[in-house]
Structure prediction request, 254 residues.
Amino acid sequence: MRLLMIGDVVGAPGCNYVREKLPAFKRKYEIDVVVANGENSAVGNGVLPVSAGHLFDSGIDVLTGGNHSFKRREIYDYLPDHPNLLRPANYPDCPYGEGWFVLDAGSFTLLVISLLGTVYLEPLDDPFRTADKLIREHPATFTVVDFHAEATGEKMAMGYYLDGRVSAVVGTHTHVQTADEQILEKGTGYISDLGMTGPVRSILGTSPEDIVQKMTSHLPTRFHVPEGACKLEGVILDLDKKTGLCTEIRRVRI
Prediction:
C-alpha cells in the first residue's frame, strides 16, 4: 500500500495548492491513501468546515489535528459527522470528535492516530499511553501516527517507543521539513517533521514582515498568510500488507 502524508496545510493558499497539485500527483505516483495535517487550514488559523471540506474534496482521505484544532468553535458541530477529521486523541475526556479513525479500503484497513506532544505545549494526557490504548483497541492492517509536537526529542522518543508496532510515526507542527526520514530498526517509518503546505516566502506559513514586526517590537501583531508561490511537503510511505510495516519512505516537496 502506498500512503502519502502531507505536512501542515496553511490557510487558503495551502488549501488551493493542494487542490491544484494533489490529483495529478496521486495518479502519477499511484497513491492509495492521503493523510494530511489540517489544523492550520482555515483563514486566520485553526480549521473550519469550509477548509476541511475543501481538502476532502481535493482528494485527502483523513485530516489530523494539533494544538489549533479547537481554535474555531464552528468546527465543534462538524466533528461528529466527519470522523475522518481528527483532533488529538490525548485531550482528556473531550466530547468533540475523535483522535483516531479506521479507514476501510476493502483489501486493507488503516488506523490513523492524531496525538499532541506535551513538551512546551499543553499538559494533556500522556501521548505514549494514549497510543498504546488506541493500538490495542483498534487493530488494523496498517497504523500511522501523526505526532504534533514541538520537541524533536519527544517525536523521536515516540518513534522508537512504537517501532515495530505501527507502520509509521511522522511529526508535524514545526512546519520545517526535516532530513531524517528513515525506517527504524524494527520496521517503522519515521520523520521528525513532514514540513508545510503553503507559501514558500513565509515564516512557517505567515508573512515574514508580520513575524519580524512581532519579534522586534514585542507588540501585538496580526498575522497574515501571504499569497505567492507555494510548496507541498510530506512523505510517501510504501507499506507491506503482510507485516504492516514500512518498506520505503521518501520525502516529497512540490
